[in-house]
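Field log, afternoon session.

UNIT: design team B
ACTIVITY: writing a sequence onto a fixed backbone
BACKBONE:
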């Protein structure tokens, strides 16, 4: 997209504030506080007191002096009915500009998103409004702006497609509007987090889901013990669980999820639970390791359990899967790295090593743990808590599974990271291997 230096806005961009003020295509009156974005001034300049006064004096609706001196108590919740005429105009204009930003045919650049949101924030602040509150109001067809930004996110070329630009750069460009809206919405409410997760699920976009979780810690909150172990509030980027998903071509119901769980044994011993989430085949999944307590009559107290289940509003499904953890005395490519574009379905499901072993010793057998849905489909707890059921299997069900708990085991690398994968087919298993459905 080429920027015309002689114009304030791009042809497909939302109308400028001056155009809206003059009754342009937006047809929305722009009150005091809105100005056209410009690179010649800071993005958040101080509001002009004189301009606000002149606007207030020119209003066609004048209130008695006594009523103008009154102000609502600070503890009262702010609503559109309690706003002044100018504040209502600012709110309405902000919503219209955000809608235009989301409905334009040409995707917005990062500069566009920043300029529009910065000007909206400036106008809102000048009129005692919160842009974050407006962004977290479902005013666009019953949904938040970030919901539509995720669903309308432009597709990016696949890693295997020929392109001269780095894939990460293309992803960041496509994410620009979503990330800008989320950043301007801080602090995020529980409803905003749920709506964002739901939009990623509908779009079945695991990559965007993980980038959001990495950038905004509200989407991946840590327990107190985990926050202490992983760094200052869990923001140490070197200590982050990574999940990579590959939906296998040629089989509409198969995928592989590879993950690295950092400080695995230490977190299991301290926090008693480690959980990763990922999106695959239009569903939001979770894989959790946990330690059984004495109140769990179905398992031996202290046994380490593996749970595979669905989260949020994912549709129920049959599951025929297996967890595979390989001996780390041999060296393999870590799952967070990009995979060979030539890998086939047979190779992926056949568990081939991605690099030859560097150890002369014969590796221990892989921990292979069947995870099958048995007689009932796997379903999420929401929106029907009474119908939740997931697959729960003790690690020791596998011949070598008990070794995962041992200090110094070769199934965990020298840094304490557990690397494993789950191979899943969305189909009913012909045999029940004793998996427990809860």
């Amino acid at each position: 997209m080429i920027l015309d230096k002689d114009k304030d806005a791009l042809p497909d961009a939302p109308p400028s504030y001056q155009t809206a003020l003059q009754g342009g295509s937006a047809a929305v009156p722009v009150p005091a506080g809105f100005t056209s974005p410009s690179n010649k001034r800071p993005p958040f300049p101080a509001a002009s007191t004189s301009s606000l006064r002149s606007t207030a004096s020119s209003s066609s609706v004048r209130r008695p002096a006594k009523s103008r001196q009154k102000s609502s108590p600070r503890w009262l919740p702010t609503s559109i009915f309690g706003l002044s005429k100018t504040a209502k105009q600012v709110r309405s204009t902000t919503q219209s500009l955000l809608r235009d930003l989301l409905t334009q045919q040409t995707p917005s650049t990062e500069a566009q998103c920043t300029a529009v949101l910065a000007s909206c924030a400036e106008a809102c602040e000048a009129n005692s409004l919160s842009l974050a509150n407006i962004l977290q109001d479902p005013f666009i067809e019953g949904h938040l702006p970030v919901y539509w930004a995720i669903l309308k996110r432009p597709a990016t070329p696949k890693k295997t497609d020929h392109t001269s630009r780095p894939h990460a750069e293309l992803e960041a460009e496509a994410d620009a509007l979503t990330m800008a809206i989320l950043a301007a919405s801080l602090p995020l409410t529980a409803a905003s987090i749920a709506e964002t997760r739901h939009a990623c699920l509908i779009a079945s976009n695991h990559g965007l889901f993980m980038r959001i979780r990495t950038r905004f810690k509200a989407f991946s909150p840590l327990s107190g013990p985990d926050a202490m172990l992983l760094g200052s509030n869990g923001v140490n980027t070197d200590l982050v669980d990574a999940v990579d998903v590959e939906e296998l071509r040629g089989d509409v119901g198969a995928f592989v999820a590879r993950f690295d769980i950092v400080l695995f044994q230490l977190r299991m011993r301290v926090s008693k639970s480690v959980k990763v989430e990922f999106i695959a085949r239009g569903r939001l999944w979770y894989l959790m390791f946990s330690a059984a307590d004495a109140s769990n009559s179905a398992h031996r107290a202290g046994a380490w359990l593996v749970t595979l289940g669905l989260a949020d509003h994912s549709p129920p499904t049959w599951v025929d899967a297996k967890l595979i953890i390989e001996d780390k005395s041999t060296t393999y490519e870590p799952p967070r790295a990009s995979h060979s574009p030539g890998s086939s379905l047979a190779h992926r499901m056949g568990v081939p090593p991605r690099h030859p072993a560097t150890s002369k010793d014969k590796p221990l057998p892989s921990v292979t743990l069947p995870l099958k849905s048995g007689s009932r489909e796997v379903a999420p707890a929401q929106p029907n808590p009474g119908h939740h059921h997931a697959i729960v299997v003790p690690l020791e069900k596998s011949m070598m599974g008990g070794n995962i708990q041992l200090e110094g085991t070769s199934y965990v690398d020298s840094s304490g990271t557990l690397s494993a994968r789950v191979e899943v087919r969305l189909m009913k298993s012909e045999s029940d291997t004793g998996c427990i459905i809860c």
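LOG NOTE: DSSP finds 13 helices and ten strands in the chain.
NEXT ACTIVITY: expression trials, pending approval
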